[in-house]
Amino acid sequence: RQQLVAPPRSPREATGEMREVVTVQVGGFANFVGSHFWNFQDELLGLADDPAADAAFRTAPLDMDVLYRTGETLQGVSTYCPRLVSVGSRGSLGSLSSSGAPSLSSAASDQLNVTTWSGNVTRSVEKPHGRNLFLQSLTEQEPNPSTSNGGNNSQKSVEDKDLVECLEKDVNFWTDYTKVQYHPQSLYEMYGSWTDFDKFDNFGTAREVVSEWSLMEEMNEKLRFFVEECDHIQGIQFIVDDSGGFSSIAATYLENIADDYTNTPVLLYCVRDPVTHGSSRNQRDTITRSLHDAVSLSKLSSFCSLMVPIGLPSLSQSSLSPFLSIQDAKPFHSSAISAAAIHSVTVPFRLQNAGPASNIAHSSGNIDMRELVHIISDQGRQNMVTALDVAMPAPSLKDGNDLWNMKSLRTLTPEISDEEEDPYSVESLVVHGVLRAGGHRASISQVKDSVYSAYEGRATKPKFSHLSVSPCPLPIPLPFPSIFRSHIGQHGEILSNHAEGTQPKGSLDVESIPMAARLRSSNAVLPFIERRSLSLQKFGVARGSLGTQILRDWGFGREEMEDMSEHLSKMVRAFHPEGGLTSDSD
Amino acid sequence: GGLVGGAGDIKLTKDGNTLLKEMQIQNPTAIMIARTAVAQDDTSGDGTTSTVLFIGELMKMSERCIEEGTHPRFLVDGFEVAKKATLEFLETFKTPVVIGDQPDREILKMVARTTLRTKLYEGLADQLTDIVVNAVLCIRQSDQPIDLFMVEIMHMRHKFDVDTRLIEGLVLDHGSRHPDMKRRAENCYILTANVSLEYEKSEINAGFFYSNAEQREKMVTAERRQVDERVQKIIELKNKVCAGTDKNFVVINQKGIDPPSLDLLARAGIIALRRAKRRNMERLVLACGGEAINSVEGMTEDCLGWAGLVYEHVLGEEKYTFVENVKNPHSCTILIKGPNDHTIAQIKDAVRDGLRSVKNTVEDEAVVLGAGAFEMAARKHLIDNVKKTVKGRAQLGVGAFADALLVIPKTLAENSGLDTQDVIVSLENEHDRGLVVGLNHNTGEPVDPEMEGIYDNYSVKRQIVNSGPIIASQLLLVDEVIRAGRNMRKPT
After folding, report:
1. Which one of A56, A172, B122, B137 is most buried, counting C-beta atoms within 10 A?
2. Spatial distance between the Cα atoms of B230 and B383, rounded to a whole number of angstroms
């Protein structure tokens, strides 16, 4: 919350003018992910100004104005806030009010006088949510605190330990661990008197909410506020929790965005909490889940440029587990992984060009969102469903001309195949903050050489690949969960001599993590799409089925069902070479 | 009342509809009632609280009968008869209003005032009455339904000021994005446009990659030129209509305008706003005239609208653009200033209801005497004339319905801290003497609503009488099923 004042801006290169990204978060888990994402950004802002911080942060080639906006309050105080619209259910803001400020205490609410009514007043007051130790520490901070990890005096580090512990024990809302100051226009709570958000678990449950005209209008207005002030918007990054009713809200929101900002690319991340993958109780449940997934894919993909499904049914059991100790039951944990991956994907959107005159490469491979979309979905097949793979931490380079370990990339996208060999695949790889032997930061050219050699060494090379490299690793802010295995070092290096079986490490022990993330359009994602396409055909379109009834309850007529089904079939067909597959031969 | 949400957010409301939407209702019966009540608000604009009260009272009256052994079926039959009779009575009871080219402004004001006073203290309500009536009359076009979306309701937070005013024209919540553009201009042509004035790479070269820097430069230049040409067309039109006069030119664009385009426009003396909201495109044309253009090709003077005054108002980082003194406004803006969000929200709710009450009156061509007068009279009619026409136990249903109507005057009395029994007795006496009276909530005395100018909407009343018994009947019959099931279960 210390980032109220705009940091000094680095002079912009003549060639690359800043192009803004506006972020939208819709739904419970999306906001959990967003909360971590913005904590990373806030940490970067703090570290850039901190003389004690790692040089990789002080001279980070990241233009934060891409994600942040400068403004001022009614009192004339200047502010620097995320360009963000966050949509959640009523009550999901915890102890934060929708204006972005801590909510009023009961005492303060008592003093609020009604100036428009002179008659009787009844007051019904619900007990506000308390602020946890961590949130209290934010408001108590001295005016110019250091954001770097590892306090100087012992007393402070004891306090920090308490804060980390309190978050490990008890996080109920995404606001419980956010350290970011949000703009008053950013946070939107949907009211819904009879929408029971506990049962808000499928596409159909949001029907009434979506049909509420004023609600969509208010969401549109919030977004317009941030887009209007952009001189050169490069795109909208949109994170949706598509496990339930928010999928439908996002679909309507995306449709409005496509109407209002026609040529603006939208990069959509569909994120899911592992706990939503629970087993079905009965056949109706199973069909409902399958139809929800199919309808979500069809609707959401219709109004975005690139769609990235994220959300393994289990992270604790995943291939990330050798390095990370994640508790699937804690959204505070699982959302941190998605957030780290999304952070890495956004790095190329804000890399500053060093310009041709500079002889030491500061960074490499900046592309804007439009170019990324173009690379991924226009170069190979006309496929816009993209897998996201991540190396967390990214392995260090060894000395000599070695190949960067591509196998270190582990996918976060569910239901895809392990198929690596696809001559039509298209990839965009981001590698940032990678170390070399001895713990030094690897240079841009070293990373490039190593990655290029690795690509050369692959049996089947992708049709097209793009590489972005930055020296700046992922900073680990204090409110990051303690999920690192004990053999992860202070800078995310993998320690060879470590004590086995100790407690997972957190932000007090690990300062930063080298990262790699890859967006990949390949036939590996085909099973994901195919499965949804088949469920819609099997359960939905077949006449008289239980699924047809469910879809009707959700408000879809036959024609719309068939359109959705055809849309999914078309997505599947993009993977089959022309004329290679004939389903109907008559 | 005040209402604090889960987050400790405060919501002040005098509006039943707001209250219901904000509450997390768990009870299925309550959810059913709430749905009906909110649907009522959506169709006729008010009456949420009355609907809830009426359904509640119908259930209370029914419960008494059921406890004494009456089967719910009889009550439901009685409700049906009573509802039909009450609706017929409403037809004879209503006061017709002649709406023509020159509607009776006084009666519209009375209806608006009655509605506003249920939400705001009298002084404030009376101040808003004229605004609300004038706004509806401003957007009203003969032979067309009234579209209240053409009244924009805007708000500004202001430290001290509580003030609401009607702007015959438009207020936009954004300003120009160039430091050299005028902040105030008179005699303005208005160009309402939906044309991209920003450089977008995708326009020409989707699916194409530059092979070298020089090629890239060329493409960029070519694309930039296209955008510049569009801007140039606008400048040409400006020069054609403004040259040698003191007239000004304002572009309000739904799409984006990038800094180079803003530069060109500013240099030509044009004021330009970007990313106007879609609905304002329609409003602008209705307010200023001209037409909204989707392309700069073939643009003529006829496309342009007109405003006598355009100026910008800045509050912190918030900017507002006022487009005023328009010729023949069919769209207008109600601007609410208030010291905090709560005050603003309260006034907004009331203004919305006020607008709808005026619209309803114009469309109903009728009003109904308020202050509980209708309910008193309808009850008397049901008891005196209808009940005896019904055979058997359904009479109980008619009686329950009639008594439930009294919840309206009772609540008025209660809200004023009066004794409800006394009030009902004194009102009944007057009605028995053939006087149609309601309740003066200040004195507790009977009052002639016609003399006081207290009128309610006909369509709102109609909806309450209509939907209340439907829901109550559903609830009673659901209950019946449950009871039946319980009785059938025999001890083994």
Report:
1. A56
2. 74
What does the pLDDT average to over B166-170?
87
pLDDT of residue B483: 45
Instruction: Give CA–CA dist A167/A165, Å, rounded.
Output: 5
What total of structural domains would you count in chain A? 2
Chain B positions touching A120 (Cβ under 8 A) are 415, 417
Which of B155-159, B276-280, B382-386 has the least mean pLDDT?
B155-159
Q: Is residue A95 domain-shared with residue A240, that is, in the same domain?
A: yes
- Residue A547 shares a structural domain with residue A418: no
**For the domain that residue A64 is a member of, what is the CATH number?**
3.40.50.1440
Instruction: Reply yes or no on whether the pLDDT at B285 is more than 50.
Output: yes
Closest Cβ opposite residue A96 in set B7, B174, B255? B7
Q: Is the same domain home to A461 and A502? A: yes
Residue B91: how many other CB atoms lie within 10 Å = 10
DSSP string, B424-449: HHHHHHHHHTT---EE-TTT-SEE-H
Across chain B, what does the average pLDDT equal? 82
What's the rounded Cα separation, in Å, for the pair A108 and A431?
A: 49
Q: How far apart are CA B420 and CA A552, in angstroms?
A: 49
Structure tokens that stand for B226 in this block: 């296209």
Q: What is the DSSP letter of B382?
A: I
Q: Which residues does chain A have within 8 Å of residue B346's beta carbon, measured at their own beta carbons? A: 114, 116-117
pLDDT tens, B111-142? 898 888 888 888 888 889 999 998 998 888 87
CA distance B311 to B309: 7
Question: Which pLDDT does position A147 carry in this prediction?
Answer: 46
* pLDDT tens-place string over residues A435-458: 988 888 888 888 888 888 888 888
Same domain assignment for residues B78 and B175: no
CB B159 within 8 A of CB B339: yes
Residue B317 shares a structural domain with residue B268: yes
Structure tokens belonging to residue A224: 């317009």
- In a mutational test of the A interface, the residue from B13, B17, B24 whose CB has the highest number of chain A CBs within 10 Å is B24
Give the range of the structural domain holding residue B321, as residue numbers without chain letter: 170-328
Global pTM value: 0.86
Could you tell me if B415 and B482 lie in one domain?
yes
**Per-residue pLDDT tens digits for B172-197:** 999 999 999 999 999 999 999 999 99
**What average pLDDT does the segment B355-368 reach?**
90
Low-confidence ranges of chain A (pLDDT < 50): 1-15, 142-154, 193-195, 355-359, 579-586
Is there a single domain that holds both residue B190 and residue B318?
Answer: yes
> Residues B194, B316: one domain?
yes
Q: Name the residue facing A194 among B5, B35, B277 (closest C-beta).
A: B35
Show contacts of B410-413: CB within 8 Å, 24+ apart: B411/B53, B412/B371, B412/B372, B412/B439, B412/B441, B413/B439, B413/B441, B413/B444
User: Are A399 and A301 within one domain?
Assistant: yes
Distance, in Å, from the CA atom of B237 to the CA atom of B93, rounded to the nearest integer, reads 60
Read off the pLDDT of residues B238-262 as tens digits, 9 standing for 90 and up. 999 998 899 999 999 999 999 999 9
